[in-house]
Amino acid sequence: MAENPSECPLGGITPMQQMLASGTGALFTSLFVTPLDVVKIRLQAQRTPFSKGKCFLYCNGLMDHLYVCQNGNSCTAWYKTPTRFTGTLDAFVKIIRYEGIRSLWSGLPPTLVMAVPATVIYFTGYDQLRDFLRARMDSQGRYIPLVAGAVARLGAVTVISPLELIRTKMQSRQLSYRELRVCIQLAVAQDGWLSLWRGWGPTVLRDVPFSALYWYNYELAKAWLCSWFHLQEATFMVSFAAGGISGMVAAVLTLPFDVVKTQRQIELGNMETLQVTASKSSTWLLMRRIRAESGTRGLFAGFLPRVIKVAPACAIMISTYEFGKAFFQKVNQERQLSSL
């Protein structure tokens, strides 16, 4: 991509256009991936109904969000209708037939309030850092995507982590905004400002290595596919394939951290809703405990569901993001030509 530092420092587009491209990609990803997780939750609830105060994770393809069951068997619209499912496909058909197609996106709007800004920060930050490092090092260094991906994810997690904790408090205790402010003030007075980042550690331990591996492999896979098909620039399908492959690799390699992060997130949710004391053990001690109880296989629990969820999400997100950037680049080029 041609680069004009004085006008469009990032491959011919402005940072604002880049934010629009990443925000659009985030919306498309959530629309495609959310139905898969809604069906998964409905099937889980059918096997083991959620009790009052029970926490469960909900993924919109961009972030994992903690949801709290408030009223026992009718705690969410996701399984208020007593429909029995025999499998995933059957669940899709019956939900659409008896509850309407909109039910496949149950719970999505509140999660987008945090997921879209987090994705915008993450993707824009990555491209900004990558191009900055390449300009400073005067190099196309192969490890630059690894560093830029890790730092960008660290920044996004740090910004969003307190907001996720606040959302969990509001949902679990059904607080008004005034009550929430008092609750936060008490928490800060008792445990300090760092208490707002409770759960930050396990999230960073999973997401930062994932992002570093993802971007490193994505840039490699994209370059290899372009070379294989003799392309000067990546097409939509090249970006889609490279994103899916790199997402799958990163998901598999960071799976033990995902298992730990999930347990920690559920613990923190129970602490808010059931007033249960969270475990004080470190992440490494928790990994050792899981390994002692379930063996090494315990650290790779949920291997197939995670790969099935992560790989398509990564493919959709990066391909729509790259498509958006290419669109804005073309618009900018046409404007520059018309102004001559």
TrEMBL record:
The membrane-spanning stretches of this chain are 20-39, 104-123, 143-161, 234-255
Q: Which PANTHER family match?
A: FI19922P1-RELATED (PTHR45760), MITOCHONDRIAL GLUTATHIONE TRANSPORTER SLC25A39-RELATED (PTHR45760:SF1)
Asked if the Swiss-Prot or TrEMBL record annotates the protein with the keyword Cytoplasm, the reply is no
Q: Which PROSITE patterns match?
A: SOLCAR
Quickly give the catalysed reaction.
glutathione(in) = glutathione(out)
- Record's family? Belongs to the mitochondrial carrier (TC 2.A.29) family.
| Database matches in Gene3D superfamilies | Mitochondrial carrier domain (1.50.40.10)
Query: Localized where?
Result: Mitochondrion inner membrane
Name it: Mitochondrial glutathione transporter SLC25A39
- Keyword vocabulary terms for this entry: 2Fe-2S, Heme biosynthesis, Iron, Iron-sulfur, Membrane, Metal-binding, Mitochondrion, Mitochondrion inner membrane, Repeat, Transmembrane, Transmembrane helix, Transport
Name the Pfam families on file: Mito_carr
Spell out the residue ranges that the record assigns to Solcar repeats: 13-132, 140-224, 234-327
Tell me what topology the record assigns in the membrane.
Answer: Multi-pass membrane protein
Where this protein primarily resides, as one coarse class? mitochondrion
